[in-house]
Amino acid sequence: MDIRSFGAGTNLVFNIFLLIFSLSCLFPFFFIIVVSLTQEADITLYGYQFWPKHWTMASYQHLSNSGSQVFHAFGVTVFVTVVGTVINAMCSSTYAYAISRRDFAFAKFFTFFALLQMLFAPGMVPQYLIVTQMLHLKDNIWALILPSAFGVYNVLIMRSFFKTSVPEEIIEAARIDGAGELRIFSKIVIPLAVPGIATISLFTALGYWNDWFNAMLYTNSDAVTPIQYLLVRIQNNISMLTQQMQSGGSAAAGLSEVPTEAIRFAVVVVATLPIALTYPFFQKHFVKGLTVGGVKG
């Protein structure tokens, strides 16, 4: 058998396998979207169906009844995600670059310091006291940003990336040419580190976008409520409405038209779809960053 034809057949098999695997990953999310658009009566009678008999936007209309509160919470989440990701990527990258340099005298100390706080977390109570009593950030949007503004795991990723992907020859050549550390970092290291920065930025953005626990701890005002915490409150309200309908209370008749099942899936779609749409943009930076810079032999 020709080795080239064997290789082509193997590539075809792997491509088909990867295609099936990709579709299997997309199928659950597509199914959630379908169920969120299913009429509540169909879910009650027929259960969850891949192709429902009746389509409706009732669950999303119910979510939109909150009006400006939903849009305001969405804006708060976007602001927290963007600003928090930028701050985290900047702090983690600069810290990691410093401890990755062999000529930095305190590299071992600061590496141990980072690992120490990763292994021995202070806990929720000290963090709550620092944010509310020392920093006075109660009901402040910065309470949603600063607790996650520095990630030790991101530092370790970037430290390994700088050690393996940023050649010492380039840095030494720049120093010989008279460039300072800040100029070397901004003009040489950052372009070479785009894949690593894009990776930790994606992890950080996912963390900020999905975070509702900090909002529950530090905020009571609707002005700084993110979309995730708002959706959690809506979900809790739906659960209470369901219990009232099952108990047959006086308000059960008025609550029977609420799409209690479909709205659960609509909440998942609203919470997941925006951040899922950012993946292609990060993928573009992954590919671009792999081709930036290099050492000329």
UniProtKB/TrEMBL annotation:
Span of domain ABC transmembrane type-1: 74-276
Pfam families attached to this UniProt entry: BPD_transp_1 (PF00528)
Transmembrane segments: 12-37, 70-97, 109-129, 141-162, 188-209, 262-282
A biological process from GO: transmembrane transport
The keyword Transmembrane helix is assigned to this record: yes
Keywords (A to Z) from UniProt: Cell membrane, Membrane, Transmembrane, Transmembrane helix, Transport
Keyword Transmembrane helix: yes
Mode of membrane association: Multi-pass membrane protein
Superkingdom of the organism of origin: Bacteria
The name this protein goes by in its record: Carbohydrate abc superfamily atp binding cassette transporter, membrane protein
SUPFAM superfamilies on file: MetI-like (SSF161098)
GO cellular component: plasma membrane
UniProt xrefs under InterPro entries: MetI-like, MetI-like_sf
PROSITE patterns linked to this entry: ABC_TM1, PROKAR_LIPOPROTEIN
Family: Belongs to the binding-protein-dependent transport system permease family.
Cellular localisation: Cell membrane
